Amino acid sequence: MVINVHKNVALERIRKEVENLMPDEQLKLVDILIHKLMKQEIAREKTVNLSAFYGLGKGLWKGEDAREYVNKLRDERI
């Protein structure tokens, strides 16, 4: 509750400061904030929950010996 009150006081102080800006400065500030929020949203959309892929390839390696597979890869590189 104390944190919310502190945030509200800070927001009110910022709002009053913004009112002292010229209209073109206010628009510039809005533009800056919009671009910042858009970047955050894009970054959030790019986040992938890797645990959703758990077990997806479950039988792909069935019957494949790991050592033989690695040796085969090494031989192919030469």
Molecular structure report:
It is a single chain. The chain is an all-alpha fold and 78 residues long. The chain has one domain (2-77). The chain has 3 helices and no strands. The chain is elongated.
Secondary structure tally, helices: 3
- What's the end-to-end separation, in Å? 66 Å
H-E string: HHH
Largest sheet: none
Number of domains: 1
Our estimate of the beta-strand percent is under 5%
* Helix-residue proportion: 55-70%
Residue-averaged pLDDT = 85
Quaternary status: single chain
Radius of gyration, CA atoms, in whole angstroms: 27 Å
Shape: elongated
> How many distinct beta strands?
0
Quick overview:
With 78 residues, the protein is mainly α. It contains 3 helices and no strands.
Topology:
Blueprint lengths: L1 H18 L3 H24 L19 H12 L1
Question: Which key phrases capture this entry?
Answer:
78 residues; mainly alpha; 3 helices; 0% strand
